[in-house]
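Tutorial, part two.
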Amino acid sequence: MTQKNNFRLGYRLVLAATAFCMVVVILGAFTRLVDAGLGCPDWPGCYGHLTWPRSDGAVEAAEARFPEFPVEHDKTWPEMVHRYVAGILGLIILGLTIMTWRWARQNPHQSYPRNHSIALLVLVIVQAAFGMWTVTLKLWPQIVTAHLLGGFATLSMLWLLAQRFARWRWSFSGIVYRQLQALKPLMWVALVAVVLQIALGGWLSANYAALACTDFPRCHGEWWPAMDFVRGFNFAQGVGPNYLGGLLEGDARTAIHVSHRLGALVVTAVLALLCWRLWRIGQRPTQRLALIIAGVLVVQILLGITNVMASLPLAVAVAHNAVGAVLLLTLVTLAHRIYSARSA
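Running the prediction step on this input gives:
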C-alpha cells in the first residue's frame, strides 16, 4: 500500500478507536455515578467470576467469599461491562501500535506517528493498572482522580493521532499565520485550565462532593460558606479501608465544590478570551472553531448548573462528563491546527 492509502486506513481505524474510547469514558462516568466502582470487590474478575455471579448458588458463594461486600446486581454489571469494554479498547490500541510500527519499518523514509502510537499504548497499560488500583485500594480518591485523567488523556491522544493520520492542517497568508502562532501562549493557558478543571471535577466526584452545595449561584445561601480547604485538598491522606460514599466532613466537601465552581469561572474567562482572539483573525476556519469551542463551553456550563439545581440527575451528570471530554478535544484540535499550520 502507498503511504497515502496507509494514512487513509490509519485515520479511519483511529477515528473508530476514538469513538470507542468515548464510550469507555461515558461508561466510566456511569459506573462511578451509580456507585458501582466497587460493584466487584476483586480484579480482574467479579467475585471470582469472569462476568458476575447471577445464579442463587453463585451469589451465595460470592457473599461467603466476600462477606463485607454483598452482591448487588445493579452494580456488578456496570463495573464488569466497563472493564470488558476498556479491555477491548486496549486490544484495539495494541493493534494500531503494531500496524503503525510495521508501516514505519516497511517505509523508513516516510513519516509515520510511530512514537505517538507507542506512547499511547504505554498510557493504556498504565491506565489499566490504575483501574486495578481503583478496586484494590477501595476507591482511594487520588487513584480515582488519576484514573479519570488517564481516560481523558487516552481519548485526547487518540484524537490527536487521528488528526495526524488525516493530515489536516491550516494554510494561511504570512500575516494571518503570525496571528495564529501568537495564540500559542493563550492556547496553552486554556488547555492547562481545562485539564485542571477536569481534575477538580474528578476530585469532586471521588469525594462525593457534587451535592455539597444544592443551591446556585450561592452555596448554603452564602457567597462564601464555611469551608475546610486543608482537609478538602489533603492529597497526602492515607489509604482508608473503604472510600465508597466518601469520608470527608461537610465543610471539606463544600471547599471542593466551591473550588470547582471557581475553576469554571476561570475556564470560562480564559476560553472566552481565546474564542475572541480566534474570531478576530477573521478566517472562516478559525471563526468556525471559535464558535464550536464557545458552544461546547455554554452547554457544559448549563449541564453543571442543572446538576446542582436538579440534585445530580444521572443522565445530566453523565453528559457533563462527556461534554467535558468534548471540550478538551476542541482544544486538542486547536493545538494541532496551530502547530501544524503553514504559511502559504
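The mean pLDDT is 93. In part three we will examine how such features are distributed along the chain.
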